[in-house]
Structure formats: C-alpha cells, structure tokens
Amino acid sequence: MNRLRILAVAGLLVAGPTVAGQSVAPGATVYDSYPGPTACISAGDRALMRTYWNRILDTLPIDPSRPIPAIAQDEARRCLKVMVPGGLSAATAPERDVAAMFYLGRALDDDALATAAWKRALKAQKIRDDSTTVVWHLDMSYANGHPAHLATARRMAAWLDTLGYVGERPLLPNDSLWVSQHDDPNGLAQTLVDTATMRAELNLVRQNYEALPVGHRKGAEMSPVGAQQEELLLHLLVNPRSDSAVLALKAKSIEVLGDRQEEGGYGGAMMLLGEHYGPVHPDFWFGRMPADSVLPRPGRITIVQVVVPRLCTCEYMASTIHRLKAKYGDSVDIVLLAQTAGHFNGQIKLAPRDEAALIAKRVFEEWKVDVTLGVFTTSFVPQPDPDRRLFDQVIPALRHIRFGNEALVIDRRGVLVLTGVVSLTPWTERLLDRLLESLLRTPAN
Amino acid sequence: MIRFFNPAAMAHADRAGLILTREESAEIARRALAMQNGPGDMRVGVGSTWEGNVRWARNRLTAAGDARNITIRIQRSYGYNNLEVQTSRIDDEGLRDAAATAEDQLRDAGTAIDPDRLPPRRTDFPSPRIWSDNTTGFAPEGRAKLAADLLAPAAQAALWSAGYLGLSANSASWFGTDREAIYATATMAQCSLTVRSQQGSGSGWAGFSSYDWNAIDATALATRARMKCETSKNPSALEPGHYTVVLEPQAVADLLDLIMQMTGREPAEMGYGPFADRPGFSKLGKKVVDSRITLTSDPADPLLGTMPFDDEGEPQIPATWIDRGVLTALAYGRRYAVNNFNENQALPWTSAVRMSGGTTSIDEMISTTKRGLLVTRFFGCQILDSQSLLSTGHTRDGLWLIENGKITRPVKNFRFTDSPLFMLNSVEALGTPVPVFHPTSPMIVPPIKSTSFNFTRLADAV
To answer: Which residue in chain A is spatially nearest to B328 when comparing CA positions?
Structure first.
C-alpha cells in the first residue's frame, strides 16, 4: 500500500498532460490541512520532491530497445529544471540523489550520467539502499512494460554487472516472480495517467495470469478480478451506464472465488455490484439533512466510505472531499460510515453515544468536511481468561464493505457500480473525479 | 542525535551527589518542555547513573572506574508519529539543540495520520525497596582492596583469577505535557569471578547480584569459584547425547532468559515465537511447561524489586506469567491494552521473575541420578528456532559426570541443542529457589533436575 501511495503521489507531482489534454491531478493544495505552512513545505514539498522525485519516472518504460517517449523526457527535464536549476552533476550532487540521477540518466538516454551516478553509488557504499531501489524499479519497469520478455530484464541484469554491481538484486525478474509482480493491477493502474496505456497494461496482466499454470496461481486468484475492476473503471469513464460491465465483474468474482468471496480481499463487496445499495441504518446520524430519511438519495451520486477516524489518513481524505464537494456540490453525496471501538483519542470506556459524538466532532470540527456521517454501535464479546481481549461483533451493514480504504460508488439510480478501485484520497482523486464527471452525464433515474 | 558525555553535566551531578535528585531532574525537564514548538505531546526523560567498578584478570587489577552520566530523552509525538532525541547536555543550548532537532524531525515526518492519543499514564505505583547506601557507600579504595583479597587465594594456589565487581546507582524520571511526573532510584551491586588453572584444564565460576552490596558474600564466591576450578581439572570427554542434568540455579537462569525473551503478546498473536497458537491467538490458557512450574514477577517483592516503571515510564505491575504450568500472561504495551481491553494499563516486559521450586536439594538430585551431568552454568546461549525455542549454547566453568548417585569426574564441556521449554517439560525434581547472578534485573530460580537434555557435541571451552 505504501508503494501505491508513493507512486500515486509521484504521479501527482508530474501533473502532466493527459489524453484529454487537461491535467487531472489535484491542485497544489493537497497538503493544505497541515498545521501550518512550514510543516506543509517541510513534510510535503521537501520530502516528496527530494526523496520521492525519482519515482516520478516509475512509469517510464526503460528499455534500451525502445525509444523513450518524448513526453517522458519532457517530464524528466522539467523535473531537473525544478529540482536542480543549475543542472545535475554526478560529481557534486548530494548522495541521496544518486538514485534519482541514475533514473534521470536512463530517462534522458544519458548513459554517461546514469553510469556516473551508479559508480558513485558503488563508491559511497550505498548499494543496499539506493541501488537496490534502482534495481527494483528497473525490474518493475521491465516487467510492467514487457511482462512476456524476461530476457530483456536479464539483459539489464547483465548491464548492471558491467557497471560493477555486486549487491543484492532481490527482485530481478524471473519466472517465479511473475505472479507477485502482477497481482496488484490496482497499483499499476494508479500510476498510469494514459487510459490507453492502462488498457494495454491490464491486458498484459490478464494475459500473464491466464498464462500461468493453474497450480501456480495460489495467492494471485484475485488478479483477474482486480484487472477487471480497472477495466470496469475505464469502461465507466466512457460508458457511464453499463450494467452489463458491472455484472461481468461480479460474474468474474463468482467465477474465481465462488462462495469464498470474503477471502478475496473485498469482503464480499463484489456480490453487491449491480444491486440497489442501502438504505443504511446506523445508530447515530450526523450531518444528515432532515429531509433525507433515506441514504443514498435518488438522483444523486453517492460515495460511501468506511472510515476508522482514530487511525486513518483522514487529513488527506478531507482535502479530497473539500475539492470534490467544491466541484460537484449537492450532486454528489459523501457518506462516511464508522463504528465505535469503546475508546477514542485518549478516552477509554466510552458509551457509544459519547464516542459517536467525539467522532462527529473530529469529522465536522477538525476535518471540516461536508459529509453525512453514520456511526454504528459495536458490541464486544470478551475472550475467556486469560486472553481477555474484546472481540468486536460483525455489523451486518458493514460486513461486506469494511474491507479496506476503497469507496463504494453508487450511481444516480442508487445502484452500486464500482468498488475496490477508488477511494476518497488524493491518490485516486483524479480517477474518481473523472468517474464522477462521467456518471453525472447519465439520467437521474 | 545522540550527544555524548559533557563535562558540564558531570559538574552538575557532582554538586548534587552521585545521581540527580527529583528536583534536579524536574528542573531540567521543565526547561526542555518549555522548548516545545508545535502541536502534539512532549515528554522528557531524565536519567542519571553512577557506576563504580574494579576489574581484574590473571591475578592483577586491570581497571577501576568511577563514572557518572546524564541522559536526557526528548520524545515528541503527534498522531502516530513518535520520535526521540537524546542528549547528555543539560545546559540551555544543549537542550534547545535537542528539542529543535525533535521538532524538525516531527515536521519532516508529516502529519498524515490523525491523532489518536493514549490516555495519560498511570503514575500510582508502589516504590519497591531497591536502594542501598551500602552499595553507593563502597568507596574505590575498599573495592580495590577487596579485589586484591579475592584474587590472592587463587594466586597462592597457582591459579588464575579474573573478575568484576560493579556498583551502580540510577535515577529515572519522566515529565510530560500531560502532567506526568514520575521519579525513582535504584542501586545494583554485582560480583562475579572466574578461577582457572594455569594449564587451562579447569575452570570455576561464581557470581551474585543484588541491589544491596551487603547481600553479596564476595569471599564465599571466590572460594566457590576456586573449589569448582580445583574439582573440574583434567576433564575427560564423554559422548554427546541425551543426559539427565542437574542444573544449578545459575544454569536454570541462563535458560530461563531465553524463554523470557519471547514473552511478548503481540508477536505471539501474530504467529511468532513458542507461545504462538492458531492464527490470531497465543497459547494463553494452555499448558506449556511442567505443572510444578509457576513464574511470577512483582516489583514490590523485596528480593525481586525493580524500577517501578519501565524504560518508557509504564508502571510495572505484579504478574503471574505461568501458573502451575499454564501460560497466563504475556507482556503488552498500553496501546495494545487500549485497543484490546479498553484499559489503560500495560503489562510491561520484565526479566525480574521468580520461579517456583520444590524441596529437593542438589545433593538429593545427585544421589538419585544413575547417570547424568551436574551443570554450573551455560554460556553463549542463542535461539535457533523461535517457534520451538530450540536453542544452543555450551556449558562452562564446571561440568561433572554423575554416576550411581555420586559425582565421579569432571568432563569436557558440551554444546547443547535443546529447547528450554522441553527442559521445563522434563522436570524430575525442583529445589529451593534462590537469587542468582543477574545484574540486569533480579531473578530467583531453583535448581532443577531434568531428564533427556540434548548435548550435541563437545565444546572446547573450559
């Protein structure tokens, strides 16, 4: 997940042109909920620009036999210009930038720079950090771009040998690593801005999966489901009302996992696809309009997100909600669902009503978001002594939808059309934004 | 950032005594706390130590020390970001430097996770008796003279003596923005010595530790080490294999240390270590060792006293880790307690434990053994497999063969490959628990006679 986050954030920084010719990256206020401008600059710009900037180039196909796309080279030059106005020197740049130098050298087809950076990394004995990272990214780039051509990656390994690389290369592609490299199409998709490229990648993921002998698919059963989720997302961007595509994903999930849906990583949420969602009946409502006796409300798009306010990255979520509500207003409802834990932010043994009030206070007074909040009361069963742990009991309304950070997207008819792909975070905000644009083009019923 | 010893700190400590008083600690913390510059919580730990020691080897004094130090720990937290900066400087500039570093690092860590503070720590805990003026009052001249006296008999007998006599006093305190203010002091004294034959064919060891120097009979330790050396000379080699063992209390403590390393609850519930059970569960409530074994800790126990709080300021509480063979407690932190019990009380890890015993003397254990080994202690113990606690190490400083109820001859040391838990499941007899040499924290264990202990090869150590 951390990797997804990093990749996606890197994607935000690129903020380059898209297929549609418009930037789909969020604005420059991603970190506007930091306690102050200093913290924002320090933790946001500096950390991302200095530490993660090399990952901007994650998505580039680094293949000696294939020309580097002009757009990628432009981004690399832009990156250089922003980060190192005076030009990048392998001899004088800070040591922490050697990996980035290597990357830029490869991206700009500048073997001299890449080689100098690599040798400097070797000399500085930074093998186990930077260079292992470089190898890992090379590996991923090859695998993502040419999953069927392992020989190409092996040539890169030979090239590393010529540079004197003697450290670990734990993830250089080999046959046994195919599955692990491709069991996360969600991660692939999020790093890609270009829809056409995304389609190609997803197609390759599926081909890879299907090429695997059945006996070797253990641990990757959900790969085709994940790939089809991405395809559904892309499909809905163009064809916002496509029930057959929604049901096809549901069918794929049934085909792969049958009645073991809850083992598949989505908590059984795939079985809710294509169905009218709700209404939900939490024990406590906050921020609900008096007239809204039923949520989701017909005629509006509803995004339902399960949150754990005491330990979520909700500052990021809040910034995304602010932007989406500013753009779409009342045409999009955002419903946050939470459940009590018995304790919250320094207070223990809380009554459900009191805890719900504390959660609401955080949502509306600290995050200051325009949402509807529903809080369910959790009941606990203590384990026998000496274990004593309090085990929370399953809440039926949350059972299938509290599987992760991803949101449920419910169209204007009240039908659940997508889940498991996008969430109320900056990392998938651009995808969600475009999906909302598309879904709002459909009739209200 | 860690700054090392600063003369100004030492001068300050000199004025106040061996260690910082509560008032001195509070004054340092007050100045540090005033330097917080940002949201979240700040805690300041002020610790001071004094150590006096004398060391000898090959019948000569080789080192004598008398050192003091102060450590300031500045902890900053916001949300789930926690960090710590340490310094030994207690002047304003040093504290400001450390606090600024903490602020910088906290800013760099970002604030993506929303705060989920823990409730304030409990500060109500008993004050165990773990301070002795006998320990702090033992002057360097006296220490050196005692060391000379301890090695003299060995020298007269043409044996080599080596040893360490150490005394320490500590203060620990925590002060926080949530009005936390705790302070405690402790002393610790230890004496251990090895006597070896000059040909390297025999070796004996004895040691003891206590908060009170007067509880240590150093002369008796020297005599015991010399006796073990004399009787362990010219050992013969035995075939490795499974032997009945009579473990002296020190040997039991060496193995028990391996078990205590694995008494964390979260790792066990995540499937790690010998106390892991089915996914998500530990073996709490299940029988793990012989039903005659009970393992307890109590910071208020006069012989088992430890600092009333751990390194992070969490109060130590009495616990029964194993009750008549059944695992009944594993250590956990306060975050775990809040999340899993809705309680604000951690069960800190400790190695200050008391193991239950029996009434069998070591002599009786020997007299009832047809063929076995008497083990003084183990050395170099390490865990090979965490799930079974299969471990290895070797015997040292005295290993004797028991035949037909009598010690017949010294034997060469063995490397063992066995699990301390297997040993505690093969107990034949238990003796009276006694305090042993365990300077990091007190430990009280009995001698144990156990069957089928696995020695896998000879060890060249003496």
So the answer is: A386
